[in-house]
## 1
Amino acid sequence: MINKVCQNLIGVFKDIKDGSRVMVGGFGLSGNPEYLIEALYLKNIKRVTIIGNNCGTNYSGLGVLLKRKQVKRFVGSFIGGNSMLTKQFITGQVEVELIPQGSLAEKIRCGGSGIPAFYSPVGLNTLIDIGMPIKYNLAGVVIKKSAPKDRKTFSKNIYILEEAIKADFALIKSYQCDNFGNLIFRKTARNFNPEMCTAANSVIVETENEVKIGDLDPDKIHISGLYINYIINNKNSRKLIENK
Amino acid sequence: MVNSINIIAKRASKELTNGSIVNLGIGLPTNVVNHIPPSYTIWLHSENGVLGMKQLDDESKKDADLINAGKQVISTVPGSSFFSSATSFSMIRGKHIDVAILGAMEVSQDGDVANWMIPNKKVQGMGGAMDLVHGAKKIIIVMRHCSKAQEPKLLRKCNLPITGYQCANLVNRI
């Protein structure tokens, strides 16, 4: 059997190049793969597209990548907790593709399930449907917008076509992981992590607890190990709390 | 001085029926919790993946793996469950949430809601708001009558980018 457990990140990160598309699990600072985010920072990988619900805070999580201008585009639903990102966005230093949170989750789910696109009622007639600002210039003028969405009517209701999302890499945080990569998440640290495991070419898991094959009850496993390529053990997550 | 937040939250709480599944938005809507009759069982849903949450009452039990959509540490009630974001929004889009209570920057007379962006000023993103206004069976907007700049927030037509058209069923304002 292939040994997916890695002692260090050298082999794991060798393929992550400048310009890669990287999905990162987490909601706020909960369920973040902290060690893997730090590795993106330490390796100074540039022009990355980050796909995740939020992009950390000004000082923590994915925010550290923004600080060093490593991010070309952020794809997610909420940037309110990160004033640096908001400022970089409206002054043309970073592109932001805002997507309703549920559409983001479903786009990722579809990306991992062989569904190229789906119809959704969410965002009809809003900027999501007709063209969302993605890039501003230095003066704060919109210079790039998303393309208008295709529409279709089902049972007299209009829906918009949302395309699936895939990535080159997914950085995942799990509570438990066996040597095959079977995963168990904990509480609301689950969030986007399970679906992201399915939608990237290479999936790297940072786990709090590494266990032997057979130690996890198959009935309790949230994500099958078939999706997972690399496993990194990190018992020492800082697990920051964003809002007290 | 009368606390307007309490009046709004109390009024909104009267719309909830015993046993309902309720999603409370960040900010003013979270105050509704304080006015739910003790005899009621209300299942609070948070879109980051929990049904059956409650406010944290014991600081020593603070857990970074257990937060609500406002990123506050929370606690759970017996019978609660956790699920992924994709499942959570299937619950929302699939009309399995009875009531969503949201704040707003502007609401129009037709029930259009704007609460995610002020062009050139504040781009915070829609988070789960666009999904909620299209998914929950009943949408209650709670807000003050005027903005901090004393501009009316309940309008004939919204000026700000819209979160959802004709989606508010009830506006609670003061």
## 2
Amino acid sequence: MSKALQVVDLSMKFDDQEIFKKLNFSLETGSMTALLGPNGAGKTTLVRILMGMLSPSHGYFELADDVKVGYVPQFRNIDPDYPLSIKSFIELNTPFWKSQKVKDQVNHILQETHLKGLADTRMGEASGGQKQRAYLAQALLDQPNFIILDEATASLDPKAKEELMSLIAHLNHEHKMTVLFVTHDIPLAKRYMKDYLYLSDGTVSQGKMEDFKESFN
Amino acid sequence: MFAYEFMRNAFWAATFIAITCGVVGVYVVARNFSFLAHTLSEIGFAGAAFAVLMGLKPLTGMLIFALLGSIGVGELSMRTEQKESSISAISAFFVGLGILFLSLSSSASSYATNILFGSIIGVSRSSVYQLVGLSVVVLLIIFAIQRPLNYDSFDHIGAAAHHINTGFVGVVFLVALAMAVSIGSQVVGSMLVFVLLTMPSSTARYLGKSIPSMLAWSVGLALLGVWAGLCLGYITNWPVTFFISLIEVTAYLLVYFTHARKKRA
């Protein structure tokens, strides 16, 4: 198996506060990893570094040449009056005048994320699970082969959680997509993820999800 | 009605201004900039009054003040915690400044009325060219940044995660907004510029579900307002601004209540 991501001696400090120190780990292409850890351990900080939205204080990371990362952030500003339909939301990062290719791509992603029948529903009126699938669909429009999801299931009911997780499993299985899934939900991670990264007290440990024994929060 | 040149001029200018305000308004509402747009118009009022004092065209002063103001106020609105209070303070200061300039200039009070409440009827041919030119510039700016602007305005977090330079998009949009406020004030006055800048687009949010459809509704409603307003103003000799605000507010309330009823049902 080739490596999709290699993290070397990665450290992060905000002013005097050290978030983590000298993290070393790698993720294999096509792996499914849960990024676990207590609140404030630096999970989102680590993700933001990997997304190039923050610079680490020390160390570096390398993505394989053919890796294209998609990212689903933790929070979105979608209030109940938000006007755009699910389809319009997904295609926000496309040109105003769309080519047939872009239209086909959007339709394909709507189908794959089970949103085809809801394409015309306003995002503000969509359920939590539908919104999360739309966020994922928007990220998928860039055709990534590595997807990072930050607490995507945090506010979902059990059924919506299962729906989203089976979709992620499908992406991993069918498209060999590498998945890094930030979560607090250990039982859910045990059901769907194969590996774990555990971030705590400024250090990281890695292993098979079935062997994960820690408990936190 | 169109036999008179002043009416033809008013129609041409109002048409372009309505299109511009309709387009810019969609992003003003999406970015929650309604209050900021109102503040810019008050800064513009001080600029217009300053221009009168200096013997310049009010539009020139308005443009300069609104453009400078957009950068300062925009910065504040993005960074300060107490953004509402700080913007209120600035807008109060500039209205005071405008009143001072007007009293110093000892111009007829009709000047103040025109700046505050609009004076599209009586606009000269050369001013029409200027207003149309400025409208085209604003539309070109929006067109040039439309893709990142759409993304940033309707999904700021997603846009930032996609490495879109949201700061740059914000500044360019503020420049376009300052220009739209200045030219919009020529029709409905700086007091009521939000009638063209936020009312049609707020209505459009209930009617359209995609950005193109919202733009179409917003521009359509703004055009309906200014065209009907000019006609009714011509017939009744009442202020055009009154009719425009009546039409835009009625459309908004109608759509709002229909939407609220549908949602409850």
